[in-house]
Queue: 4 jobs
Job 1
Amino acid sequence: MIGVGKVPANGEHAVRAVGRASALIAAGCYSLWLLEFGLATGLSPTLSFVSELSAADQPYAGLFSAADRAAGVLAALAAVCGVLTGERGCWHLVAWLGLAGFGLATTADSFLPMDCAVSADAVCASAETAGALSAVHTWHAVSSSLAGTMALVGAAGMAIALRPSGGPRFLVAAAVFGVQAVAMIVVLLLLAVGAGQPVEGFGVAQRVQIVGVAAWLVCVVCLPGVWGGGASGTGGGPAPG
């Protein structure tokens, strides 16, 4: 029986190239929130949810939603390419599934914008607390949480998969996972302090988490032992067939 991930040998290089390029562009798209420092968004980077940039009532909602949508689609495409031509093994599969889940959840997230910016609009915050906002606003929280969780799963899978080879590649992967994990814990703690509303410092923690996700996507592209075959696929050790 043909195993999962079998493609013609002469097509593997092209599939890997597409996968790496997709992950790299996804990292760039997922980092476009940095434009907030050059745009008049009216939101505080130290307080606001990053998702508020694409809230339905915000001036640059279309730009930031499109960036998230592109990041999600490209991450999912990279995951498919990884399953087809990436390194084999249980934890490698976990890493690819985490990437796929992140991509799908991020894509969904881009179609489920917040109604308004809760950190900058007291009426919006009160309506959210009272449950008076739309179902789309509520589902946005679900898709955002799922995207963050799947990114953490993907980063963990990659780090564990690279652990046997040791060396810098494992240390980098472990560090990226650690940044995501610590930032997510801080985000959850600050949300608990604010009873679900962002408090000062929340925006910093969430942006650090997003930087960690973008760094993970770059690691998917660059770290040896992630993709099967070629120079960047050596050293990870093929899994038993």
Job 2
Amino acid sequence: MAVISMTNEQYQQARLARDARFDGVFFVGVKTTGIFCRPICPANLAKEHNVSYFQHAHAALEAGYRPCLRCRPESAPNSWAWLGAETSFRRALALIEQGALNQSSCEALSDRLGISSRYLRQLFQEHLGFRPRNTLSTIN
């Protein structure tokens, strides 16, 4: 993801508007609570003098802020968690297309991916609307 250069006024405008276009582009640290959020967080807006802006979630963590439990900044678009889920899903789909479920179980596939079978089913439900086993009938 390209780094976007923004002024404090632009950060403030996007934060106050809870503009979804900036979700994952920057993060907001609130000095009074020690928590950092995504710009779309539904929590009450902090006063501007109590706010710090960060281009990356890890920068907020390094500054001593904790992730918000409401907006989960560690799972913002283009974050490692967000990209990780997409990568796991794509890898699972590729393995299924190569025949990974022809003679083994979903549990074996999830072990191979390093995730739980429950999480594997959840990924397929979110991306395709059905379970991994049902993918076989749509591929063949």
Job 3
Amino acid sequence: MFDAPIVLASSLSIGHHGVMPVILEEGDAIIMDQQVHSSVQDAARKMQLNGVHLTIVRHNQLSELKKKIEELGAKYNRIWYMCDGVYSMYGDVAPINELISLADHYKNFYLYVDDAHGMSSFGKNGTGYILSKASLHPKMILCTGMAKGFGTIGAIFVIPDQELALKVRNCSGPLIFSGQQATSILAASIASAKIHLSGEIEVRQKFLAEKISYCHRLLKKYELPDISDPETPIFFIGLGMMSVGFNLVERMIKEGFYVNIAAFPAVPEICTGIRFTVTIHTTLEDIEKLVEALVKHFPLALKEEGRTFKDIQRAFRKVSNFDNNQFIPVVKNEQNYFRVSHTDSINEVSESLWNKLLGHRGIFTHKALQLMERTFQLSDKPEDNWKFHYYFIYDSNNKPIIATFFTEALVKSDMLSPASVSEQIEEKRKHDPYYLTSKALVMGTVISEGDHLYLDKSNNDWRNALMLLLDTVSELSEKVNIGQVLIRDMNANDTEINDFFIHHGFVRYQLPETHVIEDLKWNNKQEFLNRFHKHRKQYLKQRVFKSEDDFNVKVYSGNNDRIALWYQLYRNTAQKSVQLNTFVLPENFFQNIIEDTDWEVIELSYKGDNTTDREIVVAVMFCYKTGNSYCPLYAGLNYDYLDYDIYPQLLWQTILRAKELAVSPINLGFTASQNKKKFGVISYSNVGYLQMKDSYQMALINLMPNEVR
């Protein structure tokens, strides 16, 4: 069939794991297409352990691929581009002729192509889509499966180099030690191969092509959102939200049509769809009935989930070419009357209303947000320019059901990644400060902490109100071309909220624990110590109380004479902390907060060791005072004095300051859990919900090795 050396495997997955370790060597690099099949990705990831560099490029982006080849060309021996011939989600195809041109142009560039979904349907002797468009290139490994169009079980690896093919056959552990194909399977494969070598395969291919074309014509006739390639037997109907996908799949199965859902992570969260295939056994009547059922249930599923066709057009604008007049007049469910209020300045919001609903929950009182709006604007650095969006949703009685705010800001895409991953990325940012960064709409701000969403669940229609908020934010993200929306600091145990966001296409992610001291009902150190077990008492006595007299503590407010020193201490800490990886804040933020009487700075100075009279400022804590809580926001440390237990001492002095002010709770925030738990904090588990239009950066980050510390 292939007129080239081949290696057989019992499955493609086993084959990829067997072939890659033989053909790739330490010092090689792999570039994966973002949508290459999962079996290829899984095997490629394991090659990192063999000293092979692994990265990705956006789907079918040749210009990006070319840049990546040139970037890696001088660093690595060979560069392997791994892609599909026919992609399993959208049914689109690889630009194989352009890829072969790159292989001809770049001496150390090679191709590894999985054409399982093109097998039998295309090409001479049914050898697949790739060989229907080009000849087998000497620098290409072609992989294909026998479990789809071929009609049996197993996998074929076409390796132009006879010596390399023998090496794979004789040296591949997974191929040598995996179970061999049964005799019955081999017999069936031989019978199928005989069909492929006869004229019958061309008749079957033509027959299939006619049915594919007929199905596409019907989908276009009824203006259904057909995202798939017109040549391939894989069909993808774009639906947008995951909830619509599940709804329509259930409806179609009840009608007797087996279709399956394509959802995250195979596609972006808002690009859910249903998939089905057409075979030569599918009759024209089957196709007509399938499309008839889609025409009936597609608008019903949209309506039931409160979606419109315009949502789908927004989601698939990059992968489809809808006609301008293509539109199905679907209306959303009848809902209670809601009124949305949106403004971009806190000055246009009632101070009393805001502070009543949200301001008491953290560092986002009306006054605090005024300060942030003044600070994060007109900067030369993009990360220091924020735009604020405040939302209220009122019911028919003009009662607020929802109040919240979002910040439009540049964020590091690894903000919540493991510290070891962020450390690798920060090395690259020394030369490219905005590597793996992107704009996001973040509920709250990137520096605030707390429950940023006021939601009146006593209103039975709160879900529709929350859906209206998401629609409004989605329209904003489309308008300002922002690809991700982050919902923050939600109660991890709120199953209603969790189900809502998951149902509407958000991905849940774990946030670092937040730490709170709620009870300050003690009068002295001994009463404070009596709350703890023996080992914690010993820690506090030896590491905190014993050295307390070695430090002077001062509290500053409304005075910025020492801001340069304090800011340097903050930068020391911010640049070392990657557990929650954010941009270093600008100095003018700290200048502004020091001039605000709601803020204060706790300064910790080491008295010295009697060799000098000069005190040395070793730590500071920037704290915000609300009417009923104390919020330490950032610490700054002199790392030359870490052995003096300055951070535990700073935490203790912060607790004493809140006690002096008679303010509780103390919101000690994220990170440094081990230290904070020594002081009896209560730790709360919060989660966030993320929706992304383009998951490329996250996919790239997920390729980086996470070294467990």
Job 4
Amino acid sequence: MNRLVWALRHASLFCAWLVAVCFLLAPAARAQQVDLEIVLAMDGSGSISSDEFQLQVIGTAAALRDASVQHAILSGPTGRVAIAAVIWSDAAFPKYPTEWHLLNS
């Protein structure tokens, strides 16, 4: 099956799953009021190489260190954003949701 067709067929299922994860994880972040709750979805499956996975992690870390991103986080009414990540893998391996983390500096 064409990789693009496969991806499009599974995109709606993944989106529904991601929304469900957001609702399941949200109560932990609600202990403190935040301006935004972000869930980062990262591919940890066998369909990507370890270099591609590392690129996702390094790119995410670089984005969170970027001055314009930090300014956006601090510029909201509370100056806080809650962030969590979900790393999904192949069907044989579990998905790994992280705890919520508070970004405020």
